[in-house]
Amino acid sequence: MNRLYSALKNFWTRDKSFNFLLIVLLCYLFIVIPFLTENILSKIIFLFVYYLLLTSSLPFLLKQNRKLMASVLVFLPFMLLFIEIFSQASWVPVITDFIVCAYCIVLGYIILLRTFQKGPMNTARVQGGIIVYLLVGLIFCLLYHSLNLMVTTRSFNGLAGIHRKEFLYFSLCTLTTAGYGDIVPLSPVARSLSNLESLIGMLYPAVLLARLLSMEFFYKNREDFDS
């Protein structure tokens, strides 16, 4: 077990850990959620890819000696998603959404720390910025989904169903400020969340790009000075 922990810790310190996480996240957001249906096989595939996503930051949590946090944020959602396959209770996906949101927030915070840590620019920093941007879209997707399940009145107009793929589509359209208008938030909470997401979608790339460029110029000038 100690060897496994050591291997996971070493993997997270390498740049290829960002490659792995980015590939899993892209597959999850643009292949798994949009194209899978509600049958048992699709739910099992959904659970497997979801678990890959949830365990992507486990090495860093173990490195920080946060085994309890890792257990709660990784294994509890896995068990709830497993229950969701066979249960029709509406409270199960709501609790799952909130726990996964908490996980994504922790994961995004960890990646941002690594993205903006001291050191020269590299592809891992750019990948980290993209991962956090996609995680924002996933977080709001889960918030919209849970809101629609909790509120008895309609929170959105134009939905083709109540599956997560509908809210992921709306979330990414809002995050990128595409705003096609086929799905419209109705309730005050849904409108506030969509406004907040669109604001993040506009400000985050500008702030991230400015920060990464300033870091690149700083270390490049320092290298020229040292030489």
Question: Could you walk me through the main structural features you see in this protein, from its secondary elements to its overall organization?
Answer:
With 227 residues, the protein is mainly α. The chain has a single domain, classed as Helix Hairpins (Orthogonal Bundle), CATH 1.10.287. It is built from 9 helices and 2 strands; from the N terminus they run αααααααβαβα. The chain has a two-stranded antiparallel sheet. Helix 3 packs antiparallel against helix 5. The radius of gyration is 19 Å and the shape is globular.
List the SSEs and their pairings.
Elements: H1 2-12, H2 16-35, H3 40-54, H4 58-63, H5 67-86, H6 91-115, H7 123-150, E1 156-157, H8 164-175, E2 184-185, H9 188-226
Antiparallel strand pairs: 1-2
Strand content: under 5%
Mean pLDDT: 80
**Residue runs with pLDDT of under 50 for 5 or more positions:** none
CATH topology, by name, is: Helix Hairpins
Count, helices: 9
Q: Under the CATH scheme, which class?
A: Mainly Alpha
- Give the overall shape, derived from the CA principal axes: globular
CATH architecture: Orthogonal Bundle
Structural class: mainly alpha
Distance between the termini: 46 Å
Largest sheet: 2 strands, antiparallel
Provide the helix percentage.
over 70%
Number of strands: 2
Please tell me the total number of domains: 1
